């Protein structure tokens, strides 16, 4: 049974969420309070997971995280409004140590049920995560090999997909990669308002040029393109492979979907020149697409269980034979540098 502590400035909201969790035998609510009260009670309650409102009048969610994480680094799921202001605060919260977020319900019964289902799934998925490892990696620098500028690489495109825990994982990768790589396409499960700010933050910490993808963009060396929230991203036809953005039906419950990107590359002549990575995330998005890429000769990697916040998406891909190599998040920057600039290549 997962022990949950609920933090929200609204007593009614706390009671409703607590009631829903208590009715599920998988959860027990060990506390419910404002952030100020939680500072006195949460360490004694010893929860496995905390749900935390993003915007509170007494102490903000970010301030609470900054107090909590040095003392008691445990999984925190944020409850966020999907506005531009809410997006900024939520990204700040992820930077401060929260693992994931759930959109607040809009007031309708249908959306409340959606929120609770998503919240329960994410609580279960994140409950056993070693948050200390996630926080330590924010300060860690990867030890990559010296680049061999004379090496000839067959890699012309890098594709990355991620969900829960992916914002931290992707930041770690891009912070530790060199600046002259082939184009990188990224799908991170995020809603509108979030992906543009996410790309801007990544651009500030990486030698690569990082941007939210736009319809018709050409993909060029040294650039990273992040799929727009609530839009699928694909690559177009040769010779330019311009980015295509659209809002067709959700795939595996997601838009953007990793599968949509991976499948589009698998149908392209670039497939056999692609290195694809499926990172931490809940569910199965990306597994079938990675399998399709593998069958077309792409180099396919799945993040290993020990460094995944949620070993869901990479597990699905591994179990269906889509992953040619399981790899630690810590080793991916070196692997990418090796593939693009080194001479070692285990697939040749």
List the helices and strands and how they pair.
Layout (H helix, E strand, L loop, with lengths): L1 E6 L3 H12 L4 E7 L1 H11 L3 E5 L7 H11 L4 E5 L3 H12 L4 E4 L5 H18 L4 H9 L17 E6 L3 H10 L8 E5 L5 H12 L3 E4 L10 E4 L5 E4 L7 E4 L11 H9 L7 E5 L8 H9 L3 E5 L9 H7 L5 E3 L4 H10 L7
Parallel strand pairs: 1-2, 1-3, 3-4, 4-5, 6-7, 6-12, 7-9, 8-9, 12-13, 13-14
Antiparallel strand pairs: 10-11
Strands in their spatial order, largest beta sheet: 8-9-7-6-12-13-14
Mean pLDDT: 92
Overall helicity? 25-40%
Task: Give the amount of beta strand, in percent.
Answer: 15-25%
C-alpha Rg, in Å?
Answer: 20 Å
Return the string of H and E elements: EHEHEHEHEHHEHEHEEEEHEHEHEH
Count the E strands: 14
Give the end-to-end Cα distance, rounded to a whole number of Å. 48 Å
- Please tally the helical runs, counting DSSP H or I stretches of 4 or more residues: 12
Question: What is the molecular shape?
Answer: globular
Name the poorly predicted regions.
343-348
Taking the sheet with the most strands, its summary is: 7 strands, parallel
Please describe what this structure looks like.
By secondary structure, the protein is α/β, with parallel strands linked by helices. It contains twelve helices and 14 strands. The strands form three sheets. A seven-stranded parallel beta sheet has the order 8-9-7-6-12-13-14, sandwiched between helices. β4, α4 and β5 form a beta-alpha-beta unit. It is globular, with a radius of gyration of 20 Å.
In short:
The protein has 348 residues and is α/β, with parallel strands linked by helices. It has helices spanning 11-22, 35-45, 61-71, 84-95, 109-126, 131-139, 166-175, 194-205, 258-266, 287-295, 313-319, 332-341, and strands at residues 2-7, 27-33, 49-53, 76-80, 100-103, 157-162, 184-188, 209-212, 223-226, 232-235, 243-246, 274-278, 299-303, 325-327.
